[in-house]
Amino acid sequence: MEKLLAEACARIGDLDKEAMSRAQARLDQLLKPPGSLGRLEELAVQLAGIMGTPAPTIKDKCVVVMAGDHGVVAEGVSAAPQEITYQILPHFVRGTSGIGVLARHVGARLVVVDVGVARPVSFSGVLVRKVRAGTGNIARGPAMSREEALQAIGVGIEVATEEVRKGASLIATGDMGIGNTTPSSAILSAFTGLPVEETVGRGTLVNDAVLERKRKVVAQSLAVNRPDPSDPLDVLAKVGGLEIAGLVGVILGAAAHRVPVLLDGFITGAAALVAVGLCPRVRQFLIASHLSQEKAHQHMLRHLGLKPLLDFDLRLGEGTGAALAMPLVEAACKILKEMVTFSEAQVAAMHEDMLLRP
Fold it and tell me: How many CA atoms lie within 13 A of 152 on its CB side?
């Protein structure tokens, strides 16, 4: 799996500057004041650079949800019982969960992967790629071995590669794993050095007593495991999660095929921190779909240098925010392809010498 990771990272190049320049030139000539579509224009130029064409097109969309359990729930850090991770999987594939409904709404294929659920999974429609049955308790020791982290990343790379082979030109990331805000907070603290008071939030709306317990658990996990921020794989293995590792692979695998990646919220952001640590160029392929209500998400996005497209006070996870942002990505492509320029419309152009340029 280490070879698979190295190959994926080696394939991730820079954005296509020529395609971006041509896309920007067309945007400036379209039937509108320059820059008047704001962030949509920025997104269009990024997509041109990712896909290597001044006329990017989204043909097929998918949401990849990685599922895994966490030994740290034994510390009482979540109001939700661990059993929910297993119980909700059939609702994903039946389309009756939050992401099931929203993926169907936006016309995206939903891919659900068991990379580390504690119980044996045999639900029709769920890909079983289990590395192990849940992680260890990070408050007492490492989440997993380095080899297991690599294996889970490999699962994600393989899933993303298969979805691209099927035609996916936009991949959204989603997660399922009770207790996973705790390792995500630990990952954020490890990479940024921020105190637990800044990185640990309420997750499933836990009360003040549980919030304080979470903070102590995250601090303890960092003290016990001493993750090395200069070694992203070490951070992932010591204080991460199997579904987080799977998402790292999805991000790297998609970027290796020049497919844009829509991040969801706090958990997928933690995966992005690891992915960017392993391959800094991958950041250019990331799109932040929304700002999570989990307060530390803002620190995560700031560290990644990303601006969210939406702010809907979402905190469900599962890829729901990423699914909601998919139509915005499609819209960015369509303004490049379907809007006409002033000359094409035979409309008098604006006076260039009177325009304010950034």
Answer: 35
Euclidean distance between CA atoms 98 and 84, whole angstroms = 14
Residue 178 amino acid letter: I
What's the helix, strand, coil split of the chain in %, to 5?
55, 10, 35
To 5 degrees, how large is the angle CA 339–CA 291–CA 65? 90
Q: What is the pTM of this model?
A: 0.96
Q: At what angle do helices 232-239 and 181-192 cross, to 10 degrees?
A: 150
Q: Which residues of the chain have pLDDT under 70?
A: 348-358
Catalytic residue (choose from 162, 318, 330, 352): 318
Beta bridge partners, 290, equal 310
21 and 135 in a single domain? The answer is: no
318 a catalytic residue: yes
Contact 277, 191 (CB under 8 A): yes
pLDDT given for residue 345 in this prediction: 77
Residue 341's CB is within 10 A of a number of other CB atoms, namely 15
Q: Same domain, yes or no, for 150 and 43?
A: no
CB neighbours of residue 167 within 10 Å? 11
CB 69 within 8 A of CB 85: yes
Do both 186 and 49 map to the same domain? no
d(CA 286, CA 260): 6
